[in-house]
Amino acid sequence: MILSPEQIVDVRVRLEDYPLHPIVTLAFGTGMRRAKLCAPVWGTVDLDRGSVSVERSLEETGGAR
After folding, report:
1. CB 36 within 8 A of CB 23
2. What pLDDT score does 10 carry?
3. Residue 27 sits in which domain range?
4. pTM assigned to the model
């Protein structure tokens, strides 16, 4: 599903007070999928430059937990 710019703004406004707001904003701003969004570590996040390096990904294997 592709959201219009107006729908993206609406989602971000509605989630403003929720803990997942930064992740949703990162997803909308970068196009990252769930596996990439769940994998960043602080060494790959540069808040001064406003950048995130994608160096790993999570994989669901369906195996025993």
Report:
1. no
2. 95
3. 5-52
4. 0.68
